[in-house]
Design brief:
Distance between the termini: 48 Å
Number of helices: 9
Helix content: 55-70%
CATH topology of the largest domain: Tetracycline Repressor, domain 2
Shape: elongated
CATH architecture of the largest domain: Orthogonal Bundle
CATH superfamily of the largest domain: Tetracycline Repressor, domain 2
Number of domains: 2
CATH class of the largest domain: Mainly Alpha
């Protein structure tokens, strides 16, 4: 097996076989962490689940901590995908309310699928400084992007002008991360999936001061003419000013 090469923080295999083997180890590690938690998980169990020898593990990872951090990063990037792909989609002409609802549904669907490993990640983030630092860095990045989108909505007269975009972005981010943990991991909330999506979306819309439904969709209201694309707010990736 050829020696791996360094790429930033990660060790990247040179061959396709090495790439596939490393992916098997990551998937096996995720399953073992879900079943046993971090403390009880053993490297030998991860290697066995991947169909490899114990020594093969160390060809790709230095420790159990390293493979866990990469598993955590991969899962949390997946959970954050609706922000990039839906809410911050600069090519979308959908109303903000529609994008918020769609993104939250996708986010909660992903969280529900990954609830077991998220429970372990949430626990480890309280003790592992690197896991916590990576989460904080990712949250800071997305918070700046959301703050820029809120500022853009305010400029178009759609969001509450009294909101501080940075604070509002931080609050909404906390809602979208803490609520699924309480509901799907801790079991502190009991409700149907559709109810959870509906209530969280309503809170986002209300917090931003947006209309509950896009214009023309409310009972008793006359249909409103859709604004041309150039007049619609861009909830894109523009950087927020410092």
């Amino acid at each position: 097996m050829p020696a791996p090469v360094e790429d930033g923080k990660r060790t990247v295999p040179r061959s396709q076989k090495g790439v596939r083997t490393r992916a098997r180890l990551l998937e096996a590690a995720k399953e073992v962490f879900e079943e046993d938690g971090f403390l009880e998980a053993r490297i030998s169990d991860i290697a066995e689940r991947a169909g490899l020898s114990h020594g093969s593990f160390y060809h790709y990872f230095d420790s159990k901590e390293e493979v866990f951090r990469e598993v955590a990063e991969s899962v949390e990037e997946q959970l954050s995908a609706p922000l990039e792909g839906v809410i911050l989609d600069g090519a979308s002409h959908a109303p903000p309310q529609e994008r918020i609802r769609k993104a939250l549904r996708l986010h909660l669907e992903s969280y529900r699928r990954e609830a077991r490993i998220m429970g372990v990640i949430e626990q480890m983030a309280r003790y592992d400084k690197q896991v916590n630092a990576a989460r904080m860095e990712r949250q800071h990045k997305y918070s700046l992007q959301v703050a820029s989108s809120i500022r853009d909505l305010q400029q178009h007269g759609l969001a509450d002008p009294g909101l501080d975009p940075k604070i509002a972005a931080a609050v909404l981010g906390a809602m979208s991360s803490r609520f699924p943990e309480m509901w799907l991991v801790q079991g502190a909330v009991s409700c149907s999936f559709d109810k959870a999506v509906d209530q969280l979306a309503r809170m986002f819309v209300n917090a931003l001061g947006l209309a509950e439904d896009p214009a023309g969709d409310r009972p008793g209201s006359a249909p409103a003419e859709s604004p041309p694309p150039h007049a619609r707010p861009r909830m894109d990736r523009a950087k927020a000013p410092p």
